[in-house]
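sorry to bug you again but im stuck and you know this stuff better than me. theres a chain ive been looking at and ive put its sequence and its fold in token form underneath. id like you to explain what the token line says about the fold, in plain words if possible. anything you notice is useful, everything is just below.
___
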Amino acid sequence: MEAQLNSLIDAVRQAGADGRVLRLRGGGSKDFWGQSLTGEVLDTRAYRGIVSYEPSELVVTARCGTPLAELEAAVAEKGQCLAFEPPHFGEDATVGGMVAAGLSGPARATAGAVRDFVLGARFINGLGEHLTFGGQVMKNVAGYDVSRLMAGSWGTLGLITEVSLKVLPVAPAEATLMIAGLAQGTSLDLLHRWGGQPLPLNASAWVRDSTAQPVADYLFVRLRGAMAAVQSATGKMAADAVALGAQVQAMDNAEAAQDWRASAEQSLAFFDAPNPDDCLWRLSVPQTAPVLDLPYATYIEWQGAQRWLWAPATAAVPLRELAHSVGGHATLFRASAAHAELDKVVGVNTPLEPVQERIQQQLQKQFDPQGVFATGRLHPL
């Protein structure tokens, strides 16, 4: 793999010398996201493979081009998992892309985000220097936590070549409850009440099925943990929901697993655009945020912290003002099928406050003084 690594380093150095911009790309499964995708593609997939895996230490180290599915299969053989359930959005997703995107699945609210599981990383900065930060144990993560800074950087700070991740054992027990008949506000209140109790609540999702006759509201909750804890919590939570007039059904675990995976991969029916002019918006708000006055259907995850909706790009200002009013922000996650580039004129991300923008710009200058990775993916150039 030394030749492949040197090839990546040489490519970055040459781009800096020539004044060219490089767009880092693994499997390309997340090419739909971002303000722009300018620059020459630098494919990272040749630099692949699991470097080390110590199941007893709960640590795995892999190169950037390693297929994410390969890594998940390797840890699954040992009864372990990536607890943050990263979405793939395609069969070719890579480990480097997973970290660079920083996206997490249904369990994020309780298990943590991608960055919470990054112990160390090696990456090539804009000068072509191969740097190492962090390590393979938590106590090595001290001072400026640069390795975790790479999570969610979308390839704008450097090329992640290798990452060490904390893995966790698969929970010995799991159960999913489907709760029908609770409106959004009641469901959020119930989730917040459960969140303040010692219950093994691992994931949640609320959605209104407008195709049903009559229209029906559904709350799904997943519990994970010790067998006794899951059994006890299942009975208590079902009783709480029934007391509010809901109907409760325990789902088959295999069927539920497919649905939770579909939620992460955005392959549920909700994620089919209702109109070709609609964009998929993500509202990131505090878990305790109330029901938002929205004229659009929503899909709510993370115990209320992540709220998805379809709306045209022209709704950017009111959506962002509403999210800001409760302490959150709105992201244009997927542009419309009809006019993607025009949609992005409103800005994929909520504009940063002046202080935050200055910090981000200074970070990018420190890591990439020559602008080799200045693709404009996070914000307009």
The first strand starts at residue 22 and ends at 25.
